Amino acid sequence: MSIHRIILLGLLFTFTVALPYSFGQVVQGRVMSLDAQGNMEDLVGASVYFRPIKKGTLTDIKGAFSLDVQGKTGWMLFSSTGFISDSIFVDKNQFLHVHLKPANKELSEVRVIAAPGNHDDVATLHTEILTMKTLAKAACCNLSESFETNASVSVSFADAVTGAKQIQLLGLSGTYVQTNVENIPSIRGLKTTYGLNYLPGTWIKSIDLAKGQSSVVNGYESITGGINVELAKPDTSEKYFLNVYTNSQGRFEINQQGAHKFNSRLSTGLFTHYSKQAARLDGNKDGFMDLPLFDLWNVLNRWKYATDRWMVQWGASYLYENRLAGQSNFDANNSNRFLVYGFGSKTSRFETFAKIARLYPDKPYQGLGLILNTAQHQNDSYFAFKNYVGREQSMYANLIYQSIFDNTNHSWKAGASFLYDSYQERYIDSSFVRTELVPGAFFEYTWTVPNHLTMVLGNRIDWHNQFGAQWVPRWHLKWDAAEDWIVRLSAGKGWRRVNPLAENMGFLANGRRLVLLGDLNPLEKAWNFGATLTKNFQIGTRKGSFVLDAFRTDFEKQWLVDMENGGEIRMYSNPGVSFANSWQAELNYSPVKRLELKAAYRYQDVQADYLTVQGTLSRLPKAYLNKDRVLVNLAYATPYEKWKYDVTWQWNGSRRIPNGSLTHVHDGVSPSLTAPAFSTVYAQVTRQFKKWEMYVGAENLFNFTQSNPIMSAKDPFSRGFDATMVWGPIVGRMMYTGMRYKIQ
Fold it and tell me: What Pfam families does the record tag this protein with (predicted)?
């Protein structure tokens, strides 16, 4: 048995005996909910009823209650107009914290967020919440641009040609982050390369970012964290919303959203998006466009039907993108286009979904849900004379049942999932075809000692038609150690099937030779261990929070993309050790009224054993990853948020980059180079009017760019051509302006 399994099994049996309590006569507690902006609110006048003695009371102006239960045990019921009723089995003298869910909202965990900072104080997992208010602090044209004011996630270009963006979390790429849209796996498969660009920011209602292992209910692919994006709902969205955006680099975007409620049960929403990059930019004068030209169309139609016992959502979406890049004088319609380096990509995707929930008004702790999703994805690309064709058909189903053991302090979820993926890929003269079938089952138990401790034990097993049975255990602990002190611990395993070409599309924009080595079984497995300490504080009337976290990821198997030898891209399963360590400290504070401050420092140590040309191992830090990062964000609003000001400063430390030269190889490995540290600044000003608002802003305000993102740019058909040596901003200062208009 490996050391990871021994550690995890030890953790699973920790805290298995509850602390004894004496049961008195009076039960006290507090009933709360959240307002529309996500702030904590006390529920005044909520009904509290103790069934055994048929006695009740109402909550006071602070949401508090006190009820003499005469030493009896039994069910205590909580209800309030406009909220879903809840119940707790009372058999101990304990202070009850009750969070009622709005009746017109989807089934989701009610969150109490420490302000400022948007860290979830109730969730068992260490979770950050990016609300609409947070997203509006920047241009936020799509999902990849939603993390500019977030300290945990880094976003960068994957290469200097295609315009594809990638995220990093806990020192590892976004492929290790399970990215869902409303609990449906989204950024995966052939969508990995450009998927972050495809989801418009105005469609997003909120983003939940959880570090470390996520719940087994959501699947097995989470290794370093989980991102769940909640879109605007048809029953709560504005009747009409318009967003128009343009910038100094020749980009234009328009988003329209409309919602209509036919009655109290049925509603629909139509979301449309169009964006275009029209200008050919070459700020560094290397002969290549700094940004790809593109036309992107995206449309979503969704429906919702809700009663006291049923909630059904369904819809469909379609997107089409035509992307063009390469040398500035490249013309795709020119018959001599092979004399000029060009890149082209055409993508179409059609997707359908359905979410069905069976509700039990008399038993709000009980529920049955079914999630269904189908997708068809097509991509045709070329990198000069190298062609790529990809086709994907996928289907996903997840059946979830939740209930309790005895009382709501002992809850559980169980279910089954099924994933079908069919891939047909062709690169130059090689074809790759495969079909994946992955049925799975899971069980998750949650034990709660109110106001003290929450522990979640999860297990799932999945049967992959190529890799056999795969076991995924996960454990989470949240301990309210003292007033305003929260400790979280987590441990668990994740695994994933690699898509070598689709996940590394940007690496094809070079003249290197692609080499596949050794065991080509592209399966990755990793254990992740994490600890988080949260301290909420108040100085006078000003609130704040301090969050310190540390995570460790150990790979059993990892698929490496090796750029360490000039002239080659080598892909192979890591024959040695691979790990990632991440530490972060974040302070959120409101020093004066309407001014919010966020300051964070992050350190990352990521290393792996690479294979030299002589067959020996060489342990190296991960390339292109800066160990140190500092982020400072200041946000200020005038009364009634008539004016809003926001500025973000990011400092990124130096990082190792491989030497792409075809010469100067030493001991089988090209000597590494070091990229310098650099800073970027983002700023935005927003003016709020009655039904609309206008915003202006700037990105990369001090115009820092990497001077040579493309090697051998003057000879793009040579073996030394390489557009993947990107460590900093490719484009310079960008000014933008936009307008948002709403009809409630």
Answer: CarbopepD_reg_2, Plug
Q: What DSSP line would sit under 202-255, residue for residue? A: GGEEEEEEEES---GGG-S--SSEEEEEEEPPTTTS-SEEEEEEEETTSEEEEE
Residue 587 has pLDDT above 50, yes or no: yes
Rounded to 5 degrees, φ, ψ at 572 are -165, 160
User: Nearest to residue 222, comparing CAs of 232, 211, 233?
Assistant: 211
- Mean pLDDT to the nearest integer, 174-182: 92
The beta strand positions in 35-176, using DSSP E, are 40-42, 47-50, 55-58, 64-68, 74-79, 83-84, 86-90, 96-99, 101-102, 113-114, 119-120, 127-131, 153-157, 165-169, 172-173
List the single range of 341-350, 384-393, 437-446, 714-723 with lowest mean pLDDT: 714-723
Structure tokens at 15: 């805290």
Contacts of 101 (CB under 8 A, 6+ apart): 33, 83, 84, 86, 107, 108, 110, 364
For the chain, give the number of residues.
Answer: 744
The pLDDT tens digits of the residues spanning 670-710 come to 456 889 999 999 999 999 998 899 999 999 999 999 988 89
**DSSP states along 241-266:** EEEEEEETTSEEEEEEEEEEESSSSE
pLDDT band, very low/low/confident/very high, at 502 (cuts 50, 70, 90)? confident
Residue labelled with tokens 């991960």:
622
Residue 711's nearest CA partner among 283, 344, 286, 382 is 286
Range 580-603 average pLDDT: 95
What is the DSSP pairing of strand 153-157 with strand 165-169? Answer: antiparallel
Beta bridge partners of 398: 371, 417
- In the chain, the N- to C-terminal Cα span, in Å, equals 59
Under 8 Å between Cβ of 216 and 257: no
In angstroms, the Cα distances linking 726 to 324, 665, 706, 743 are 19, 21, 8, 43
Higher-confidence residue of 415 and 60: namely 415
CA 227 to chain centre: 2
Burial class (CB in 10 A: 0-12, 13-18, 19+), 328: middle
Look up residue 412 and give its two tokens.
Answer: 């559980």
Buried residues in 523-555 as b, exposed as e (16+ CB within 10 A): bbbbbbbbbbbbbbeeeeeebbbbbebbbbbbb
**CB-count exposure of residue 635 (10 Å: 0-12, 13-18, 19+):** buried
Structure tokens at 227: 């991102």
pLDDT of residue 725: 87
Residue 34 binned pLDDT confidence (cut-offs 50, 70, 90): low
| pLDDT digit string, tens, across residues 217-246 | 999 999 999 999 999 999 888 899 999 999
What is the signed CA dihedral for 114, 117, 120, 126, rounded to 10 degrees? -130
3-state secondary structure of 133: helix
The predicted-structure confidence for 273-332, as pLDDT tens digits, reads as follows 999 999 999 988 999 999 999 999 999 999 999 998 999 999 999 999 999 999 999 988
Count of other CB atoms within 10 angstroms of residue 683: 16
- Measured CA to CA, the distance from residue 100 to residue 739 in angstroms comes to 36
Q: Show the beta-strand stretches assigned E in 136-191.
A: 153-157, 165-169, 172-173, 177-181, 184-185
pTM of the predicted model, to two decimals? 0.83
Share of the chain above pLDDT 70, in %: 91
Q: What are the respective helix, strand and coil percentages of the chain, to the nearest 5?
A: 5, 60, 35
**How far apart are alpha carbons 537 and 120 in whole angstroms?**
15
Q: 677 to each of 583, 624, 653, 700, how far by Cα in Å?
A: 19, 12, 4, 15
Place of tokens 């460790």: 552
What the block records as the tokens of 5 is 């399994």
User: For the chain, give me the number of helices (H) and strands (E)?
Assistant: 3, 48
